[in-house]
Amino acid sequence: TLYHSISNVGQRWYSFGWESQLLEMGFLAMFMSPVLSLRQYPRHTPTSLVIVWGNRWLIFRIMIGAGLIKIRGDSCWRDLTCMNYHYETQPVPNPISYYLHQSPEIIHKLETAGNHVIELLIPFLMFLPQPFCAINGFLQILFQAVLIVSGNLSFLNWLTMLPSIFCFDDYVLSWLFSKASVKKVIGLQRERKEGIERPPGFYVRKVVSLSLSLLLAYLSIPVVQNLFSSHQVMNTSFNSLRILNTYGAFGSVTKQRNEVIIEGTYNTTLGKNGELADWEEFEFNCKPGDIYRRPCVISPYHYRLDWLMWFAAFQNFQHNPWILNVCGKLLAGDPLINSIIAYNPFKKKPPKYIRASLYRYEFTKIGSPEAKAGKWWKRRKIGEYIPIVSEQNLRPVIEQQGWVWYNKDTS
Fold first, then answer.
1. 109: how many CB neighbours lie within 10 A of its CB?
2. pLDDT, tens digit, for every residue of 45-72?
3. What's the rounded Cα separation, in Å, for the pair 236 and 227?
4. Cβ proximity of 222 and 235 under 8 Å
């Protein structure tokens, strides 16, 4: 309930698909364990099959939704060329992304084809008896591990591993536990089969499980309709509590990487386009900026501002007015902004002017002169993103939006 409230209040800051996935998993987790018992091996309260199949249904929807949105979306998924671009243009690449991007063409085609197999075919093993269901769980966890190694996709992949665990039964997981624990569980299972007398709470639990199964079935109707729709949407909730949702990722893949670079200056003599001023860049925690800086490794941590800056580069600032508030805080010298960026060259004294430019970024080639010089990226300026602004012309815009302009004297 608390995280649901935070996600709603957070608006764009919490607008990522895995927020709903975390809420759905949290809802299912509430019904996993008995409410009134803290025993390590509680009797009469095995994990309900509704929870087991609820989690299996979740991983099935995640994978099938992601696979279908790709096939229906960008043509590069159909001609097997998407992985030619993905490693370079994903939201926050890591060092391994740099090397994977430069794999041979045939490897990228095999990666794309393998992605389709994992997302569109393997999930159906879930509906088959063991060991096929367990094979599905193992392959899904392995797939998420590969994604973790090849990029910084927040805690999404770590979170997606969890429902896959429900594809394993007690026998498959028994090697993780001591012989004493396995013996105890076998004894509880034997008692269950022998039909010993059960307390009233057992039947209450049965009623709750039945009610939960009906609720999940009802909430699944629009989700299934969306999966079959030619106008499929991804990462959407059809209920206000986000108990059961639709998922998907990378329905389209960016072919070129643009980055918004924010700069400031103390100079008052700027020239026509700022060419007379000495501009210094603000560095963000993980998104590409300094071409000499090695791509970061942060998964499962999530730098939300860096992700939003990636989205902002797809459009102009009019479609992303929040970025003006970021510039306003940098221009006003708000100390709180320093906690979510890596480097502020104007930490002691705020700049007189701020601007944002759009740059085209590309990985340097392994062995190239740029790479030998220590450059991970090469870039070129392709245009203006936010024109040169000062407090005099930005502050009224900030206040018109209902945001608060930081004032050192009153803060």
1. 16
2. 778 899 999 999 999 999 999 999 999 9
3. 12
4. no
